[in-house]
Amino acid sequence: MAGDLSVEVHEGHPSERRQVRFDWSDTPAQWIPGDPFSSHVLNVLHLLLPTGERWFAASINLAKEQVKDPELREAIGPFIGQESWHAWAHTKVLEHLEEVGIDTAPYTERMDRAFKRVLGDHPSWPKFLQGWWMRRRLGAISAIEHFTAVLGHFALTSDAYDRYEADPVMADLFRWHAAEEVEHRSLVFDVHVAVGGRWSQRVSTMATTIPVLFGLWIIGANFMFKADPEIRGRIRFNLKEYRRAVREGKLPGLKVLFGTVPKYLKPGYNPVQEFDTQLALDYLARSPAAQAAAEAADSEQVADGGDVSFDGDLKELFREKDRKEMAWAYDLWSHEDVSKNADVILERVEKGDMPCDGPWSEEQVDLFRRCTEAGAPP
Ligand code: HEM
Ligand SMILES: [Fe+2]
Ligand SMILES: [Fe+2]
């Protein structure tokens, strides 16, 4: 399993993923009471991150073969694990938003399509362009990771969510995510350098990332204001409200957001020079959801019963290639790993984006579903 690294982990690289779960049943869409503006500006993260972070994970996964440094190479597993789990956790919020009457699919489906078309793999391109494209993607992701660390540090240090009595579950989700972003802040930067990404590309990818990222954010905020039946577009993104939210400590100001960009653009910079890993680890040690995840990971709970078996029926569903590609998360040939994580695996094969190279047939999905519902024995 990811998490047991045989080499010492550098500062700025992740050591483990935390399979954190949240109970959304009591969380309102406007989770900062009396402040729909700030609530929805932050809710935009649920729209952007599932697509974005799965794209991070898939892009790094392609690059890992080329990373020679053993420590960096090993840290890629927990990184993919963390980003993939972040994406999953935010998807759960989107499902909850739908239950309370906010349908986000029009935005997220367009995002998904645009990402695949513009930022995905282009297998038909010539080889020299493939290498360039991989470095270019990693440069852009490194630029975005700069901002997730900036936002992460902000979320961990602002006391506004407590002062304004924000929903504790949503505050915990954002701070758990914030903490892991601060923890793994230099991983993508280091991979970009390790595969030959240059300083000039760091500058050019930052220059294209800023308008796209913050453009998508403002469009997303206006989408949320329209989609929320309690608002119906009566609010739009505007500077007056933004400045008020910044004064109250709920949103980061422009100086916080962009103040460290000049440092990022200096030759010789590395993200470990900024922010504080200990601050992140301290939060993870007191986060209710991260604590529950740590306890669940320690307890061995494998169900049994049913007339189907893992070795006889299920294991054959996984090819050698699947097992190798997914080793950062689970051993797909291990009964224990698969049954512990059956809910998440089932979700992805039902949705059809896993396996990576084409969905399972109805029969295969059905077999997996029956096995897991019955709690397949070994
Ligand atoms: C060669 C084939 C495969 C490749 C290259 C691959 C690659 C990946 C990558 C890069 C991710 C992280 C990004 C994301 O969450 O989308 C991921 C996640 C995931 N994949 Fe695969 N995968 C493959 C096959 C499979 C198969 C066969 C299954 C299950 C039957 C599977 C189940 C999952 C699950 C459940 C996740 C979410 C994991 C988590 O965050 O815990 N994958 N995969
Ligand atoms: Fe993340
Ligand atoms: Fe990240």
Q: How is this structure best described in words?
A:
By secondary structure, the chain is mainly α. It folds into two domains: 36-299, Orthogonal Bundle (Ribonucleotide Reductase, subunit A); 310-374, no CATH class. Helices cover 63% and strands 0% of the residues. The protein contains 18 helices and no strands. It has helices at 36-63, 70-99, 105-119, 127-157, 160-163, 168-183, 187-194, 199-227, 239-247, 254-258, 261-264, 277-286, 288-298, 310-314, 320-325, 335-340, 342-351, 362-374. The radius of gyration is 21 Å and the shape is globular. The structure holds protoporphyrin IX containing FE and fe (ii) ion (2 copies). Residues 83, 145, 148, 181, 184 line the site of one fe (ii) ion.
Offer a few descriptive terms:
18 helices, binds fe (ii) ion, globular, binds protoporphyrin IX containing FE, mainly alpha, Ribonucleotide Reductase, subunit A, 0% strand, 2 domains, 378 residues
Short recap of the structure:
The chain is mainly α and 378 residues long.
**In this structure, how is the largest beta sheet organized?**
none
CATH architecture of the largest domain: Orthogonal Bundle
Bound molecules: protoporphyrin IX containing FE, fe (ii) ion
- Might you state the CATH topology name of the largest domain? Ribonucleotide Reductase, subunit A
User: What sequence of helices (H) and strands (E) makes up the elements?
Assistant: HHHHHHHHHHHHHHHHHH
- Helix fraction by DSSP (H/I, runs of at least 4): 55-70%
What fraction of the residues are assigned to beta strands by DSSP?
A: under 5%
The end-to-end span amounts to 19 Å
Counting DSSP E segments of at least 2 residues, the number of strands comes to: 0
**Residue-averaged pLDDT, rounded?**
92
How many domain regions?
2
Q: What Rg, in angstroms, do the CA atoms define?
A: 21 Å
